[in-house]
Amino acid sequence: MKYIDEFRDKGLARRLAETIAAEAHPGRDYRLMEFCGGHTHAIFRYGVQHLMPPNLSFIHGPGCPVCVLPMARIDHAIALATQHDVTLCTYGDLMRVPASERKSLLKAKADGADIRMIYSTQDVLRIARENPDRQVVFFAIGFETTTPPTAVAVKTARAEGLTNFSVFCNHVLTPSALQTILSTAGPDGVQLDGILGPSHVSTLIGSRPYRFVAEQFGVPVVIAGFEPLDVMQSALMLVRQLNDGRCEVENQYTRAVSEEGNRKAQALIDEVFRIRPEFEWRGLGFLPNSALALDDAYADLDAEERFPVEFAPAKEIKGCECPAILRGVKTPTDCKLFGNPCTPDNPMGSCMVSSEGACAAYWSYGRFRAASLQPKVESRS
Amino acid sequence: MTSDRRFPVRLDLKKGAVDMSHGSGGRAMAQLIGELFQRYLDHELLTLGNDQALFMPPPGRMVMSIDGHVISPLFFPGGDIGSLAVHGTINDVAMSGARPLYLAAGFILEEGFPLGDLARIVESMAQAANAAGVPVVTGDTKVVERGKGDGVFITTTGIGVVPEGILISGDRAEPGDVILVSGSMGDHGVAILSKRENLGFETEIRSDSSALHELVAAMIAAVPDIHCLRDPTRGGLATTLNELAHQSGVGMQIREDAIPVRPEVAAACELLGLDPLYVANEGKLIAICPPDKAERLLDAMRAHPLGTESAIIGEVVEDPHRFVQMETDFGGSRIVDWLAGEQLPRIC
Questions:
Q1: How far apart are the CA of A315 and the nearest CA of chain B, in angstroms?
Q2: CA angle at residue B173 from B170 to B178, to 5 degrees?
Q3: Closest chain B residue to A17 measured between Cα atoms?
Q4: How far is residue B224 from each of residues B162, B217, B220, B293, measured CA to CA in Å?
């Protein structure tokens, strides 16, 4: 595949691995947090960790929109579907995420709720057009990356006068989450030396919003693409910054990301959404200015306004360490539930559901590998 | 077909639709069977009109398999639910090394389903059965109310007989054995996805749906000591290798760069965030055999039209965890796990 295979070249990977091993100082650790689940997925799927020197480790961050969605929001969505008999449409990843009392959207669907898996916001609009007698709610979720399609859907619905379409908005913003993680970094929080920054998010918002990470917290950032060679090259760039004592926001993903980002998309988002004063993130708590709601001009398309629901406060499953794992404080294997009973077939927490979740990645790609595999690249310096 | 005085008006295969009377057991059902099922699935045992097929069992060990077919869309590039129902069950029988003999087919039809589409499906089924030399000799038809089905569900049962001296089973893989596949992975699943109403992307990929019993016969003729055979249908190559590893109590070590995947399939999977190793196939098989027989088996597979792209993709290893591990194209290593739930596209 042109434009894909180039970023998965085995020879280049080997050379990059040798360079990283040669340049990484054996006397220090390089703890690099990959913010995005897409990076976690790439690291495990292609065995990137296996190519790194032993003193360079990846710490999995909270960058999976499914994982950081608090249980209460799933409860809310289920209540929308059951109390108001709406057609609830959402992306596939969300279907199996545990809600309170071991419910999920999939189980609610089996119990009779009209819940449909969609692939794009265009599917939701089509369902609304084809079913004028039913209220159709889009369970919107995702970081900055998935926000413009929701905005387009909202504007399309308004333009077409679709009165049976509304949005249950759960779009969240990454800089606030990074701020929170870094505020608790240190002896009691996560210990990290550098950050692989979100790339798809940055195609929208640019690299500039991450300057505070370097300036305020003294942690270098490299905006990193999702292909395995992107991840390795970004790791090398962070190693070099750390070795040089530099602390900057660098951009590895120059083929898609600029400092300013996509101004047109930003304008669209500004028009359709407003920033919520605070929003709950699973594992991180209530974060200020960290999520979006529909702007007042589109309040009539806001499902939370249109369909008030009642539900009991959500209770996390006892022993589930997803919150600490999302903060990078613990690894999946630190959780007593990991592997028994919590597996992708029987998820107790959202980190085990999403293909980008740290627990699912550990389980699917990484379990027992420490015992069975030794790193192939040794440090030469 | 001779005219039947019981049915003065022929079934309208252009504009007609299934209605509840077609499952009632009465005249309408008899007409549906006579003018549609028996017309296409023309075999003496079926046209006798009994509720069962009566035949002499051949000597040897018999194999029996059943498979339910629920698929959307019903028609897809390279096949449809009818041919799939024939191929799927023939392959399940053949993966024991057996020669498939007969099929039985059960139809669950939804009220309102166009008779023309049903005729296309049954005709396709007949063509697939004739081409394979495995006739449908008995069947059943039921009709469910509108909204309680998905157009057509087909269940097929197949029987076959295993040649003397052949012992092929999922629990026979041994450390040191070699793993082969008969061709490219993921064609069927991507062909189906390309026609899903809400995806609908352009691709030249056609389903690989086909009957593999003749390929199996050629393989057995070359290497009677095949340990395992299985067709990697739902869950794809990854899930099937995990099944075999679990059954045999062994591990598997495969190489990503040895696994055939068409560029179009890889590209479609890339777009959707899917892994081709988990995408379904309907005309491919996995074979596991002793290492000293692997090259001979590979030659035999490649000499058959359905196995020209066969490849050796890895080895069976000792592993108490029964893991399937893969050396990636990229030079790393990872576990290839069971599929959990349905493979779903990523959000972003």
A1: 25
A2: 120
A3: B331
A4: 12, 10, 5, 10
> Residues 142-181, chain A: which have Cβ within 8 Å of B?
142-143, 145-146
Whether B200 has its CB under 8 Å from any CB of chain A: the answer is: no
Tallying the residues shown for chain B, one arrives at 348
Q: Which residue has the tokens 């393989």?
A: B219
B348 to A117: CB separation less than 8 angstroms, yes or no: no
Residue A235 has pLDDT above 90, yes or no: yes
Nearest to B345 among A50, A119, A345 (CB): A119
State which residue of chain A sits closest to B197, comparing Cα positions. Answer: A123
- Which candidate in A4, A7, A10, A64 is best for mutational testing of the B interface (most B CBs within 10 A)? A10
CATH of domain A71-173+261-306: 3.40.50.11740
Q: What is the tens place of the pLDDT at every residue in B43-73?
A: 999 989 889 999 998 899 999 999 999 998 9
In chain A, ranges of CATH 3.40.50.11740 domains: 71-173+261-306
Which pTM does this prediction carry?
Answer: 0.85
Q: Is the ipTM of this complex over 0.90?
A: no
Are the Cβ atoms of A92 and B335 closer than 8 angstroms?
A: no
SS3 A318: coil
| Locus of tokens 């070590």 | B253
Q: How far apart are alpha carbons B268 and A39 in whole angstroms?
A: 20
Question: Is the minimum CB–CB distance between A47 and chain B shorter than 8 Å?
Answer: yes
In the predicted model, is pLDDT for residue B270 greater than 70?
yes
Measured between its terminal Cα atoms, the distance across chain A in Å is 36
What are the start and end residues of each CATH 3.40.50.11750 domain in chain A? 24-61+184-251
Residue A34 at interface with chain B, using a CB cutoff of 8 Å = no
The one-character DSSP state at B256 is G
Question: In chain B, which residue's Cα lies nearest the Cα of A352?
Answer: B340
- Contact residues, chain A, for B275 at CB < 8 Å: 45
> Within 10 Å of residue A159's Cβ, how many Cβ atoms?
8
| CATH superfamily assigned to domain A24-61+184-251 | HypD, alpha/beta domain 1 (3.40.50.11750)
Whether the per-residue pLDDT at A147 is higher than 90: the answer is yes
Q: Which two tokens stand for residue A214?
A: 């370097």
Over residues A74-102, the pLDDT tens digits come to 999 999 999 998 999 998 888 889 999 88
pLDDT above 70: percentage of residues in chain B: 95
- Residue in B with minimal Cα distance to A229: B330
